[in-house]
Design brief:
145 residues, alpha/beta, 3-stranded parallel beta sheet, two-stranded parallel sheet, 14% strand
């Protein structure tokens, strides 16, 4: 819904009114998932979101995303006290909050993923002077782990 001016996180998005276009797309989304034979979500949180759209609970199955640990973790820098966060690098995912928090805690941060927000996040790492504590591994789908 980003193209329609929606900037809120999903919890706020669920109940807010946006106008005809966004509400129409939400109705289509709800219709499609309610009429699907089966819906798979990557977490219990999203299972609740989909259930809130009117999908019967017995039609929703949670299957956690799995990832292989990248070779970068074998370097000295990432042997312990490392936070690993993965996802599409877009503004609403909150990677900027993690980067700012790294400055205040004694840990390293590995960001796994790629997206339109990568350059801004890399600049934020430099601005917060945490280059020695934050690394970007890129997208796992492009690597063979």
């Amino acid at each position: 819904m980003k193209g329609f001016g929606v900037k809120e996180r999903i919890d706020d998005f669920q109940n807010k009114k946006y106008g005809f276009r966004v509400d129409f797309l939400r109705k289509i989304q709800s219709f499609v998932v309610r009429n699907a034979s089966f819906v798979v979500t990557p977490s219990d949180y999203f299972k609740k979101v989909v259930w809130g759209w009117g999908v019967k609970e017995n039609k929703i199955q949670r299957i956690y995303n799995g990832v292989s640990i990248p070779d970068i973790l074998e370097s000295e820098k990432f042997t312990k006290d490392t936070i690993i966060s993965s996802g599409r690098l877009v503004p609403w995912k909150g990677f900027d909050i993690l980067i700012k928090a790294i400055f205040k805690i004694n840990a390293n941060l590995l960001i796994v993923g790629d997206g339109e927000d990568k350059k801004r996040l890399e600049d934020l790492v430099l601005q917060n002077e945490v280059s020695d504590k934050v690394a970007f591994s890129g997208s796992l789908k492009e690597k063979n782990f």
